[in-house]
Write a structure and sequence with these properties.
- The protein has one domain.
- It has 135 residues and is mainly α.
- Helix 2 runs parallel beside helix 4 and helix 3 packs antiparallel against helix 4.
- The chain is built from 4 helices and no strands.
Length: 135
Amino acid sequence: MLLIVRRAVPARASLPQLLLHASLAAALNTVLLVSLAAAFRPLVASALYTFLAPGVAGLVAWGYFRRSDAAEPLVAAIAFTAIGAIADLAAIGMAGAGVQLLDPAFGIGFPLLLTFGATGLVGEIVPTLRRARHH
């Protein structure tokens, strides 16, 4: 029996570039989160963040997946989500216990789930568009 195993991070994939792009998306989303929390009530800020953060991650992912050495969409989605979660928790922790950045109605789980989906979707779309353009 022949078993074919695909590598999640192919040998040609650049792990530093993946981490750089995921960190950029997380940093931009942290600035977004803190800015929204300063400008709006927690419920409004949290709702806006829930729908804007995946868009920011998707735009950064678009730039990442244009690279020929991009990792698989699933691997990139995991990296973007994990680094985003760490950044969100750090921002909330640095804000102090008295400052509420996210309303419990939305929390950080839903924006991270949407970020995972947006990154994975972009990772599926961009290579397809690149292949279609070359044909």
